[in-house]
Amino acid sequence: QLQWCGSGHVLVNGKWLVDLSRGIAVWRYTASKILASTPDERCWYTDNIPASAGKSRMGLCSLALPDAIVKQRVERIYSQARQIVGPGSQISLNVRVPQVPNIPDYAQRVEAMIARQLAESQVTIAPGQAVMLEVSVTPSATGETHSFKPWGSGRDSVPPMQVAGQKVACRVAITSSGKVYWEQDRAVENVGFMSIVHLKPGENLDQHLAKFMWNHTLTFFEQIAFPGRIFDTGGTDGFGESRLRAGGAELSFLSRGFE
Which of 39, 89, 153, 198 is the most buried (most CB within 10 A)? Predict the structure, then answer.
């Protein structure tokens, strides 16, 4: 869900205010309800409005975002914040990937995907940098056993096939001096949501499920979306938060270090 907020900003999912020129979410807004469809570039939302006899009623409100206070604070924060990663920066790469059966070039494919996506963000890989991109792929057993029953002619005479559960934990993180500034992870299992399996001639069940699992880890690395910029304010979650009220935006909090 995207809502244009005048020149240079967009509200994502009714919450994150993204500064398009800087490529990051700079603020969070909350309200009783933020409308998805609006008649103009203002943010439309609901809040309690005072009524007669000390009562209140739910009313429809609007406000141009970012509000004046947020504009001032964000500009001041930018003057103080240190950029960790952004266009033109360099980053070291630390890849910990195991040997994968039947995919001999697995590690090379992962590194190529990472390098391509970094290049799209105008970030280059160079050794010895203070900022590091950590990539890890860790296989392990789930401790579960899964049973598959054969299907087709003569299936009643063939016993079920037992398969040990396996999983692979994939993680990508941007760190500096031991601090994690951004990360994404996903765990993929060999069985997962699969209930019906079609085996090719000469292929056994373990091989088929392992291929399914490892190929899905490659999908994870292929679909990673690196943030355009990262500042030392605790990540990409914005510099602060405001609550949208009937009278305007009320500051909720600022990220640590920018109070």
Answer: 89
